[in-house]
Predict the structure.
Amino acid sequence: MPTLTAAQRRELEKIEFDAFMAECKSRELLETLSSKWVALILSALREKGALRYNELARTIAGASQKMLTQTLRGLERDGMVTRTVEPTVPVSVTYGLTPLGASLAELVSSVKTWAESNMVDVIAARAEYDDRA
Amino acid sequence: MPTLTAAQRRELEKIEFDAFMAECKSRELLETLSSKWVALILSALREKGALRYNELARTIAGASQKMLTQTLRGLERDGMVTRTVEPTVPVSVTYGLTPLGASLAELVSSVKTWAESNMVDVIAARAEYDDRA
């Protein structure tokens, strides 16, 4: 789809997106956003500012190059991440957050922090559940 | 693992969980939480209060019974959702949020709302990206 015209945008603005609806575009977007890699990448860029590819890879331990590259490309296409190429030798590529990406990063990094902060409660709940079962 | 003793819990409280680490338990928990079904179930229970299974299935259009049942069981085991069985004929099963689940529901429902509210910006960004490519 080519760049939206103002009229096309106005038409889209009229839609009430609702992710509870199976066929709604926002359900698909929610699925894309519901990814630990998205949460980790956006959290890293939020905490540390713009990062080179290698710095990002070091921060997010255990992410394969393929997964990182694919997720970054998706985030760039969705308007959440900027990709800046400097003509050094070899070229250096830096990733940063757009304002749209920064607004989402705030939310997904709070989910990451929640997982870290409530891990013991979850472990305790699992142990109790398994005990009852 | 059987129900935690106070001493076991104190030991776990000393750990600094960090989802940027590949082997950290919180990375695995972040993966479990990063699911559109988790986001939709917790958002539904947050918006509507406790719900019977069928009401939940109606709210989250297009979720298969298998997916819904599996996700609910995981959320129950993780201490986020309560499952109450009433001895009617046929038995009626009601799901609700625990305080732990309510605290997560607040965060994931904000991601769902973000997807709905920013859909047009994302569509516009994709169109622009594809135009450049």
